[in-house]
Specification:
mainly alpha, Serine Threonine Protein Phosphatase 5, Tetratricopeptide repeat, two-stranded antiparallel ribbon, 72% helix, elongated
Length: 449
């Protein structure tokens, strides 16, 4: 049908040509140069141009068809190569699943030659080395893949995991930094990088990462947990600044903590300590007094105030404070214990014995009052009574500082600590240690239970 249409078109063109030629017999003279002129009928020239256009169009069409044919041949060849590579990759994965890492490696390497930028194949090749406990060689493969595809989040995550296996923490951190740069809300990478910074004690960087994590989390419960952790990391950054003598930076970080959680007791204590080290004793006491006024159940703040007033040679002020607090909360045994402890520090032994005798009668199972009372009897040269009390308290370590400082217990994991710490040594939670002075130690509870 197509051929018939073309034939009819050619016949019509020829009829048109002869008709116009008979109707237009005039001749046109064309001068190419002074010595070369040509005379041709006008219709011949018109149709010659028309035919030339048809020839050029036909040649162009043939050239297009030739190019298309070559492209199709090339694409078929490429598809065949890719299909062969995918098949080799599939077989390589099967071999790896059957534990034949050498065969898997050979097949995957062949596949990578056809698809050198395929991150999945690069990962699989690295995995063949990792399964042979050769994480360093696997890491080399992965980092080589990153040269051609530096923006591959998949490869960067794989590099980080492999670097951890190889013990290359710095290379893992660098890869995770790349992931975070490409994907700032990648929670997995942010958390792993944060843990590296925490292990390195790079508290400021860890806190900055944790802030991003807290901003990315949407669930309210998770957000509260992340912000609690952020407060702890900011606090540790403040501690590190204080240890380095950067008091102003330490104060700044502490204030960030308090913006997140005003009830974060370690921050109040550290803020006062930083101000104290700046030479402003009155300012430090004011900070601790204000915090204790807002959170009167915080015995560590009282102990801080006690030390500050004694260093300032003003023991009467802390004695008066204890008495006022006990007057407002007469059933608080811990306050009475701390006052008795203060009596011992100030060598007011008779007052200490009187207070502690009453407390030991009220809290028969408590071990800390017995320790303090035993110390008081020792100072009165009542060695036998002191020894009996020490034996009841099940104490073998007679270190005076340990005896004097009250015990604390974690409100989260219930583990005991011999002294107050900003962070529980057992579970790692911040701001959870509370005074356990009128309670039995964990070991005693377990024996009696």
């Amino acid at each position: 049908m197509h051929t018939k249409i073309i034939l009819i078109a050619v016949i019509l063109i020829l009829i048109g040509f002869f008709y116009l030629h008979t109707q237009n017999p005039s001749v046109v003279t064309y001068t190419v140069s002074p010595g070369h002129t040509y005379e041709e009928p006008a219709t011949v020239l018109v149709f010659a141009g028309f035919l030339a256009g048809i020839v050029i169009a036909a040649l162009n069409s043939l050239a297009g068809d030739a190019r298309r044919a070559l492209r199709e041949i090339r694409e078929r060849r490429e598809r065949k190569v890719v299909a062969s590579a995918d098949e080799a990759y599939r077989r390589g994965l099967d071999a790896m699943n059957h534990g034949d890492n050498a065969a898997a490696r050979a097949l995957i390497e062949r596949a990578i030659k056809a698809k050198p930028n395929d991150s999945g194949m690069i990962q699989a090749l690295a995995e063949t080395y990792i399964r042979e406990n050769n994480a360093r060689e696997g890491l080399k493969i992965l980092e080589g893949g990153l040269v051609s595809t530096p923006d591959s989040v998949v490869l960067l995550n794989a590099v980080a995991a492999c670097a951890f296996d190889a013990g290359e923490t710095r290379r893992a951190a660098k890869a995770l930094e790349g992931v975070v740069e490409l994907d700032p809300k990648n929670l997995s990478a942010l958390r792993r990088l944060r843990e590296i910074r925490v292990k390195d004690r790079s508290w400021g960087e860890a806190a900055a990462l944790q802030k991003n994590i807290a901003d990315c989390v949407r669930d309210e419960g998770s957000k509260r947990r992340e912000r609690r952790l952020l407060a702890g990391l900011l606090f540790e950054a403040a501690v590190s600044y204080l240890e380095d003598g950067r008091l102003a930076d330490s104060v700044g970080k502490v204030k960030e903590v308090l913006k997140i959680d005003m009830a974060f007791m370690p921050a109040h204590m550290l803020l006062g300590e930083a101000i104290y080290r700046q030479g402003n004793t009155a300012g430090a006491i004011k900070v601790w007094e204000k915090a204790y006024g807002r959170y009167p159940a915080s015995e560590p703040l009282l102990l801080k105030l006690e030390d500050a007033y004694i260093r300032a040679a003003e023991p009467d002020r802390i004695l008066d404070k204890y008495k006022r607090e006990i007057s407002s909360r007469p059933n608080n045994i811990n306050l009475r214990l701390l006052l008795a402890r203060l009596y011992l520090r100030l060598e007011m032994v008779d007052a200490a014995i009187e207070s502690l005798e009453r407390i030991t009668q009220e809290a028969e199972d408590a071990y800390y009052p017995k320790i303090l009372l035993a110390e008081a009897y020792l100072r009165r040269k009542h060695s036998l009574r002191a020894a009996q009390l020490f034996q009841k308290a099940l104490v073998t370590d007679k270190d005076k500082d340990k005896e004097f400082y009250p015990p604390f217990e974690c409100a989260s994991c219930r583990e005991e600590a011999s002294s107050w710490e900003p962070r529980c040594p057992a579970c790692g939670e911040w701001n959870t240690l509370v005074m356990a002075g009128a309670q039995r130690p964990a070991a005693v509870r377990e024996r009696r239970d």
